[in-house]
Specification:
heterotrimer, A alpha/beta (635), B alpha/beta (448), C alpha/beta (324), A: 635 residues, alpha/beta, 7-stranded mixed β-sheet, 6-stranded mixed β-sheet, B: alpha/beta, TIM Barrel, Rossmann fold, 8-stranded parallel β-sheet, 17 helices, 17 strands
């Protein structure tokens, strides 16, 4: 019998399945994101899908009893509990879609963040040298290794100390002789030592490529970089495949605590995600895995631990200390990454603590705030919000659990900043109409982070919601409707959207978003408060993370996501972690700075800080209960 | 003015060497600013820095010990004027006054009663701290002799007569009683006794100025363990003096004021004295001396002290156990949540708002919310199962079905196994409770 | 002078609020009450003025209370079926500065009295006494929103205080107060920030800062004082430091809270370690009131006449003190 096929009708995806697989497993493989936060145990009930044709079998009778249920369109089941035995068609309703896992090209990083001139002369993580070695003779009896050393160090004395690992040494005699002692040698700079990483025929070595990688909790971004000149050949992002095991780091840690197999799954999910992005980049930019001789990775402590398949559970427990902050340099082969097997995979940015990871220290290096006189603030709004304040004399950081609301997770109407996402939003009370812009000018599919900020500001202004975020039940518009007892405000009617359903913001969505912004603002205020500083003392605010360049900073202040400082001081910098990874890929100086930055960083633990809870509640208001701190905001 | 962390940081080496045991100089500076570290923990600090920072790191109020052994009482050591900034330390001592003119039998009974008085509150026992022997007939030495035999509590010896005091101190041996008091008239004698017997000494002024002068003099005489009495015997003056002494000590670091205080319950009857005691407990007294010995009065004073000396920064918690919302019966649903009061009261409010009669099983998570507790492994299948077992909910309902917060849906499988209950995953947000019960609950439990 | 008196330089003072309107002011009250205006923490005469003394409101329920312990019940048995007579007794015999009328009968889970019935009660109490009135709903949001416009109207022009507005339910009561010229009580669950949120929300609706009184669900000795004391103190500190949105006078409900706890009502045979019942509840109420007074409460809502007398004497004593 042919293997059955699953058609995900609203994604126009047709995926082959093995008999015995669940819908969830097929969906994950096919890049159809179905929401789950129990990791497929059948407990969270999030992954409800509708089978519109064909039938499925129960995975576990116990969980099957309440499902399936009939709906107008078909049979509603839990994707994780439904085993495929024949061809089926599946509809993933809004509310069950995680996000689409399709790979996207991404916008270039801000030039200021990736300015290599700060770090000249360049010294990439791996360098390639094309050598024409004198062949051994009775007079010149040096060993192969010494022969290599002599030639390399003759040109590049600073490569000392130069070492070699066993797998490369094993290849060495053959490689030299096969190529008549004309070889291209890749040398990795791993801190104290240099290592011979790859020996290749010179003809194959047209390019030496490196990868800058940001492993985010929600999304993974990769840049393909020409190591000779630092030029970025291509860049792409994708959802982190680990989302199937939980939306935030804690859920994922909990999943891995179930056993070594689960940790392996988690590890494999990020390796698979990376390899898929690599494959895409290779295809798009005509590159080969063997050309890639180094990778610099930035990520939060949990992501890095999972990447290296290290038990991350200590991060979950008080005092939230990760197993290690500095990670060993490993080879691609050890991880199963589809690049040159001996390429160094280096976590150049160590973590500060369990919840302030290398992604943040990468951001510090990229913004250069650690070298500046003026006081700067780096605010990275992701699933975790991380804050760094400081200047050349001191650096202090903290993290808060912001939740993924602004990243488009947990808010039904929200989505990542991809085609069809609403980025600008204004509701006019007088006209009862919405003015908006979407990415690529398509009909709205959902609201991006920047659109959510404008939406909140606009709804407060129009008095659809009050300053605590409560919807005004008496608001005179048909857009305000009650569904299942909860108030919702229809932003776009079904006939205006690309998804054939209305886009509605519910009361609890507003609460989620407010909590997110409150956590970020509270973290900022508490951190500054510890040093008796006011927000107005800050000369630069770098906003990194979920928000696109289109974010209206004025609105971000108006809702109290950011403190009230002169707007020209606020700069949206995008993926500063990726920028940091790029810089450390290209420069030893940047790598050294990354180390120094971490040792100079003071970590403030907000989870045990009583001021934080207070500030959090004060910030759970638009913009803040202390209006005197928002003099420029008039609502 | 206290130095800020940044002021202190500027004086430190800024090498982040970690030799002080703290990772960075800034973190060390913050600890110094909060009085949680001392400058000598940094091996690299310069002399200039030490000079510049000295004083800002010394504790503003002395901690004084009265008595010895297990029942010794520590008072003072406050670092803030307002308890929300940091908790008040060393709960004030309650001293029961016993006049020396009482008969031996009465004295014995009064002391025994005071020593045995204790109250059970929030599962802990709270008792009284001192016996204050008031020399109203010159027989303090004999009373002290008796008290050392009868009392398990340390003593306060109250007499203006140095001769009487000397005899009493001899009777006390090395019991380290508190000497009350050195005033302008008997200062030299009393100070000498305090030195001779190595006992803490109360300095009593007729007013604040005299108090300051005498305390300064005591300091010059090398006495370190002092307790202050501003002499005020009228409730508003007591309040003002207590506030001034405490502010001078903590805000201004005025050294002669940097000691705990002693106060007396004033009034014509029990209730008036309770008012006076409440004021003293709230307003910084290190020791409250009272002649009240009724259970009513002592219960109230001990409770007031417990309240004022509870750390208000600790998250407000509800007690773990079963709570009723509306009028639940054996068919009513069982909700599970944590003991952070905001979490519990939100659940309570949302459930009542939906007119749902329900049982709520509250798990002790040390006052953290559902997700925080889960993240920190305080809200796990094991802790929930244990609470379910111990709280007695099983006897209250017919079916073992409980609703778990949706945010921790992941625990449901383990919890079913650990508790033997059927678990229904509820909404993620408490606000969803009414809808959940209206639309989903019945359908979900039909399976069991 | 050897000791320099350490004085704080407060930058602001507490908002003043006047409750009740006399005939000249469009009402029928024979007296009004002004609270607030403090320039320092409670009773620190060496540092600043305390122009208005804290006041005591006595509680009147609009239906016969049940389960009151004898030492309390004996003072009210003769009047507790009639709110007007009860209010009269509280004012004339016990010296209440104002009356806090709690409309418990409106609760849908209880007698479910109608808005008209509540309004009638209010009128009868207003007629029976000349002191100002606090009108408190039944603590059921939906029902309060239903009755409050009528209750408010019943006292129109009298500058009553309407209680209470919360973060999630403030619009109806605030609109009523605005329409009929009353003050409003803003309530928060022991949270200074939520208190502030309610204050901002009602001022956004047009409420005057001088027409707001704050109530932070303060609880009683042993049950809430540990948090409430500091919440009150912090709020007052913020007020004196210039935070406009926390400068309103504060109210504490002492009577019903103190008498609710078992220390106040459990008979001696069930709790011998607590001593005789006769005075226990009074002492509990007095100690609670004293602590809240020193934490900066401006209106104490009390129950037992003896407790009221003691606390009033204490306020007298604190107010008559001289700067040291």
């Amino acid at each position: 019998m042919d293997s059955p096929t699953v058609i995900f009708e609203d994604y126009q995806v047709e995926a082959p399945a093995e008999a015995g697989e669940t819908i969830l497993e097929v969906a994950n493989r096919a890049g159809v994101g179905i929401a789950t936060y129990c990791g497929g145990q059948g407990t969270c009930q999030q992954c409800q899908v509708v089978v519109t044709s064909g039938t499925v079998q129960p995975k576990d009778e116990a969980h099957w009893q309440q499902w399936p249920t009939a709906t107008g369109e078909g049979i509603k089941v839990l994707a994780c509990q439904s085993v495929i035995s024949e061809d089926i068609t599946v509809k993933v309703p809004i509310g069950s879609r995680a996000e689409d896992f399709i790979i996207h090209e991404m916008e270039p990083l801000k030039p200021k963040l990736v300015d290599l001139s700060r770090f000249e002369p360049l010294s990439p993580l791996a360098q390639q040298f094309v050598l024409d070695l004198p062949k051994p003779t009775l007079e010149d009896t040096l060993t192969d290794m010494e022969r290599l050393r002599r030639e390399l160090l003759n040109d590049e004395a600073e490569l000392e100390p130069l070492t070699i690992d066993l797998p490369v040494l094993r290849e060495l005699p053959q490689a030299l002789r096969e190529n008549d002692f004309q070889v291209a040698i890749a040398v990795t700079d791993t801190g104290l030592a240099r290592k011979i990483a790859a020996i290749r025929p010179p003809t194959a070595a047209q390019r030496s490529i490196g990868l800058a990688i940001d492993v985010g909790t929600s999304t993974v971004a990769v840049e393909l970089v020409d190591l000779d000149n630092g030029q970025v050949v291509g860049r792409a992002i994708r959802r982190n495949g680990q989302i199937a095991y939980g939306e935030d780091v804690i859920s994922r840690i909990v999943w891995t605590q179930k056993g070594p197999e689960q940790l392996q799954n988690m590890h494999q999910a990020i390796i698979d995600t990376l390899n898929e992005i690599f494959r895409y980049l290779y295809d798009e930019h005509n590159a080969a895995p063997d050309e890639v001789i180094a990778a610099s990775v930035a990520g939060n402590a949990t992501m890095i631990n999972f990447l290296l398949r290290i038990d991350a559970s200590p991060i979950r427990r008080t005092p939230h200390t990760p197993p290690a902050t500095e990670m060993p340099v490993v080879t691609a082969e050890q991880l199963g990454l589809n690049i040159h097997p001996q390429a160094a995979v280096c976590v150049c940015h160590p973590a500060v603590s369990g919840f302030v990871g290398g992604d943040i220290t990468a951001g510090v290096v990229a913004t250069g705030m650690h070298e500046a006189e003026e006081l700067a603030l780096l605010v990275d709004v992701g699933t975790n919000g991380e804050i760094v304040a400081g200047n050349k004399d001191w650096l202090m950081c903290a993290s808060c659990s912001a939740g993924p609301a602004f990243e488009g997770v947990g808010v039904e109407a929200a989505m990542p900043a991809t085609a069809g996402a609403v980025t600008n939003f204004h509701y006019s009370r007088d006209r009862d109409a919405v003015d908006y812009e979407t990415i690529a000018g398509q009909r709205p599919r959902g609201i991006a982070g920047s659109g959510l900020v404008e939406m909140i500001a606009s709804l407060v202004e129009a008095e659809v919601i009050d300053r605590t975020g409560n919807m005004n039940a008496d608001f005179p518009s048909d857009r305000l409707r009650r569904s299942d007892g909860e108030l919702g405000f229809t932003l776009f009617e079904a006939d205006e959207t690309a998804i054939g359903e209305p886009i509605v913001i519910y009361q609890h969505d507003i609460e989620n978003l407010l909590r997110s912004k409150a956590a970020v603002l509270a973290a900022i205020n508490v951190l500054l408060g510890k040093l008796d500083l006011a927000a107005t003392d800050v000369e630069h605010v770098y906003l990194a993370g979920a928000f696109g360049a289109g974010l209206n900073v004025d609105r971000a202040v108006a809702i109290g996501l950011l403190p009230d400082v002169p707007r020209e001081r606020i700069e949206v910098v995008g993926d500063s972690a990726l920028a940091g990874a790029y810089l450390t890929l290209m420069s030893r100086q940047a790598r050294e700075q990354a180390q120094e930055t971490v040792s100079a960083m003071t970590y403030l633990d907000l989870s045990s800080d009583t001021d934080f809870m207070d500030e959090f509640i004060a910030s759970n208001f638009i913009p803040h209960t202390d209006l005197s701190r928002f003099p420029s905001v008039d609502m | 003015m206290a130095l800020t962390a940044m002021d202190i940081y500027k004086q430190l080496p800024k090498t982040n060497c970690g030799d002080c045991g703290i990772p960075t100089c800034l973190a060390f500076a913050m600890k110094l600013a909060q009085g949680q570290a001392s400058l000598d923990e940094c091996p690299h600090v310069t002399e200039e820095a030490t000079a510049a920072l000295e004083g800002s790191s010394a504790p503003p109020m002395k901690t004084v010990t009265i008595g010895t052994g297990d029942n010794a009482l520590q008072i003072g050591g406050q670092t803030v004027l307002f308890r929300h900034e940091e908790t008040f330390h060393n709960p004030c001592g309650i001293a029961i006054q016993v006049n020396t003119s009482l008969s031996e039998e009465e004295t014995r009974e009064r002391i025994t009663t005071a020593c045995k008085t204790e109250f059970d509150r929030v599962g802990m026992m709270f008792d009284l701290d001192l016996i204050a022997l008031n020399d109203d007939d010159g027989s303090l030495p004999q009373a002290a002799q008796l008290a050392t035999e009868v009392s398990t509590l340390p003593l306060v010896l109250m007499s203006d007569d140095p001769g009487s005091m000397h005899g009493a101190l001899e009777a006390c041996g090395d019991g380290r009683p508190l000497i009350y008091a050195a005033g302008a008239d008997n200062f030299d004698e009393m100070a000498a006794l305090a030195k001779e017997f190595d006992c803490p000494l109360v300095i009593r002024g007729q007013n604040l100025d005299e108090l300051y002068e005498l305390s300064e003099k005591a300091g010059e005489a090398g006495l370190e363990d002092l307790v202050l009495d501003s002499g005020a015997r009228e409730l508003n003056a007591v309040l003002q003096n207590q506030t001034i002494v405490e502010r001078a000590a903590i805000n201004e670091k005025v050294k002669p004021m940097g000691f705990p205080t002693i106060g007396f319950t004033i009034g014509n009857n029990e209730v008036e004295k309770i008012i006076s005691a409440s004021e003293l407990i709230a307003k910084y007294a290190g020791i409250v001396v009272t002649d009240l010995l009724t259970r009513n009065a002592l219960l109230t004073m001990v409770t007031a002290r417990l309240n004022i000396y509870t750390d208000p920064q600790k998250p407000i918690q509800v007690e773990s156990g079963v709570y009723e919302i509306g009028e639940p019966d054996e068919t009513s649903p069982v909700l599970i949540t944590t003991n952070f009061s905001l979490t519990y009261y939100t659940v309570e409010a949302d459930t009542s708002a939906g007119n749902i009669d329900a049982w709520v099983v509250v798990v002790d998570t040390e006052g953290t919310s559902v997700l925080t507790a889960w993240a920190a492994e305080d809200f796990t299948a094991e802790t929930i199962a244990k609470t379910i077992e111990e709280c007695g909910i099983e006897e209250k309902v017919a079916n073992k079905i409980a609703v778990l917060p949706g945010g921790v849906a992941v625990l449901s499988g383990e919890l079913e196994e650990a508790s033997g209950w059927n678990i229904v995953v509820g909404p993620r947000e408490s606000a969803g409770i009414p809808t959940f019960f209206k639309t989903e609950y019945e359908e979900r439990i039909a399976q069991f | 002078m050897p000791l320099t008196i350490p004085k704080e330089r407060w930058t602001a003072e507490v908002q003043t609020a006047t409750i009740g309107a006399t005939e000249e002011e469009g009402g029928t009250r024979t007296s009004t009450i002004t609270i607030g205006g403090e320039q320092t923490l409670p009773f620190l005469h060496f540092e600043g003025e305390t122009p208005n003394r804290p006041v005591i409101a006595m509680e009147v329920l609009d239906e016969t209370p049940t389960g009151w312990p004898e030492p309390l019940a004996r003072h009210y048995e003769d009047v507790w079926d009639d709110p007007a007579a009860w209010a009269q007794k509280a004012v004339e015999q016990f010296g209440a500065d104002l009356i806090c009328l709690r409309l418990v009968s409106a609760n849908p889970d209880g007698s479910n009295a109608s808005a008209d019935q509540c309004a009638e009660t209010i009128q009868s109490v207003l007629e029976a006494v000349g002191v100002p009135l606090i009108i408190w709903g039944c603590d059921n949001d939906e029902k309060d929103n239903e009755i409050m416009p009528f209750c408010s109207q019943a006292g129109s022009g009298e500058r009553c205080v309407l209680g209470s507005a919360t973060e999630d339910n403030y619009k109806t009561i605030c609109a009523s107060a605005l329409a009929d010229g009353h003050l409003i009580i803003n309530q928060s669950p022991l949270d200074i920030n939520i208190q502030k949120q309610v204050n901002i929300l009602v001022t956004d609706m047009g409420m005057d800062l001088g027409d707001i009184i704050m109530y932070q669900v303060t609880g009683s000795l042993g049950y809430g004082v540990e948090y409430a004391y500091s919440i009150l103190e912090r709020t007052r500190l913020a007020a004196l430091d210039g935070d406009k949105m926390l400068q309103m006078p504060m109210l504490s409900i002492v009577g019903s809270e103190a008498w609710r706890v078992k220390e106040a009502w459990q008979p001696e045979e069930d709790a011998p370690e607590w001593g005789p019942l006769e005075k226990r509840g009074i002492i509990w109420e007095v100690a609670t009131a004293t602590l809240f007074l020193h934490a900066a409460t401006d209106i104490l809502v009390m129950r037992h006449p003896e407790a009221v007398a003691y606390v009033r004497d204490h306020i007298d004593e604190m107010m008559s003190g001289q700067p040291v």
